[in-house]
Amino acid sequence: AGSRVRHFWFPNVLGCTHTPLYTENRERRIALCHFTLSTIRCQTKVQNKSFRISNMYNMLFFFIWLSSRSPFLEFSQFAAYELYGKEEVPAGGILTGIGRVSGVECVIVANDATVKGGTYFPVTVKKHLRAQEIAQQNHLPCIYLVDSGGANLPRQAEVFPDRDHFGRIFYNQARLSSEGIAQIAVVMGSCTAGGAYVPAMADESIIVRKQGTIFLGGPPLVKAATGEEVSAEDLGGADLHLDSVLQVTIEPSEAPLFPADELYGIVGDNLKRNFDVREVIARIVDGSKFDEFKAFYGDTLVTGFSRIFGYPVGIIGNNGVLFSESAKKGTHFIELCCQRNIPLIFLQNITGFMVGREYEAGGIAKDGAKMVTAVACANVPKITVIIGGSYGAGNYGMCGRAYSPRFLYMWPNSRISVMGGEQAATVLATITKDQRAREGKEFTAEQEAAMKKPIVERFEEEGSPYFSSARLWDDGIIDPTDTRLVLGLSLSAALNAPTKKTRFGVFRM
């Protein structure tokens, strides 16, 4: 049950790319990724259906590209997708992500004034707060590209008064600054009311001359309140200088032996049909080299050490339902990674923990709890990618959102739910049937089918990655072929923050 190095050039891996199922899966995955990309593009249209040209959006990428020619890791592109009915709020009206400025990794938060004047909807606030959380967890400087009219007034009750509403943004700015995390604002347009506090509370601010303005009350409000007539340029604006900060270098890396686009054919539509997670690992890690830990024990959980863009990582991936042996193996592996300060990568494709009399008697509950405890207590950077299903307690054991991964991404084919729709419908139908039986009433097959249908449909809708991403339950839907790059950027960002020593709770024996 010891560890051994596994290189992925043996025949059974190569053979998987020459089957009809592989070809069918590949075509479907490519089509799904095209749908995802086209949906993101549709998010960037205004109501007259012509493409919006966002100065902020273009300026952001020009800014990042000119600075270091490095990629930009964008979060939650599907924020607000179909969330507000006919009212379009593309990407939540705000762009967030991680980019390099003069070689320094920064969290970028950019208002899009072409969406409701850059005002904050509830999901805009949530997305902004999530970006600040990422900055705090990974000790990354924040750069705010500001062009905002403040809170969206028609939705003020959902935006203004509560703990995690608009005011929390400025609270976070003050707290982040106190922790030594730089807060830099670049005023790109009109910053009114609450929008003015972002640059006002920043460590340093820059205003684009004859374009950016800062004021609590704009010219119309000033005239109404005092009778004074003043231009926007005369009312607010200032120039500050921005100094460069610490540069971070990236270690050299080794490309995988297999092309990333083969991932399209490896993963199918039917999540009930398992695929070997090693096939995924082989296409995202350096040199396709994987030092597998306890390869012949608890084999429904694959664990091992590898590197991504030169960064050492511990990888935990699902190859089926979790048994007691799998959970104990996962717990042991997490302990090792915490002891050695190695970041953890979770590749989720999990239906949950095994159920049944034999397994309950064998201690599946307490063994599963060991793994959940280990995940919860691990202080090394944790990054989760949902590559298939994410159901029930399996979501917890594999570092779902509630277990504070630094980043969480989803593939377009993924699903997330407390359980599958068919299972949920069967459980609820059984409860109803038993209740009717106790009351001496009949529960026909037709009634059962009629009851199940809307439940299955609801779970199907709510389990979609697009439903999840619209509500910021993840940090974005990514193309499977971008997984290696996204993980590399996320690791590079996560390793800026010092790692606290892990102290585990009590493990039930």
From TrEMBL:
The record's Gene Ontology cellular component field reads: methylcrotonoyl-CoA carboxylase complex; mitochondrion
Q: Which reaction does it catalyse?
A: 3-methylbut-2-enoyl-CoA + hydrogencarbonate + ATP = 3-methyl-(2E)-glutaconyl-CoA + ADP + phosphate + H(+)
Q: Name one GO molecular function term.
A: methylcrotonoyl-CoA carboxylase activity
Q: What Pfam families is this protein classified in?
A: Carboxyl_trans
Q: Which residues constitute the signal peptide according to the record?
A: none
EC number from the UniProt entry: 6.4.1.4
Domain (CoA carboxyltransferase C-terminal) ranges: 255-501
Q: Which residue numbers delimit the CoA carboxyltransferase N-terminal domain?
A: 19-281
Q: Which InterPro entries match?
A: AcCoA_carboxyl_beta, ClpP/crotonase-like_dom_sf, COA_CT_C, COA_CT_N, MCCB/AccD1-like
| Listed SUPFAM superfamilies | ClpP/crotonase
Q: In which pathway does it act?
A: Amino-acid degradation; L-leucine degradation; (S)-3-hydroxy-3-methylglutaryl-CoA from 3-isovaleryl-CoA: step 2/3
A GO biological process of this protein is: L-leucine catabolic process
Q: What class of enzyme is it?
A: ligase
Similarity-based family? Belongs to the AccD/PCCB family.
What is this protein's record name?
Answer: methylcrotonoyl-CoA carboxylase
Query: What is the originating organism of this protein?
Result: Gasterosteus aculeatus aculeatus (three-spined stickleback)
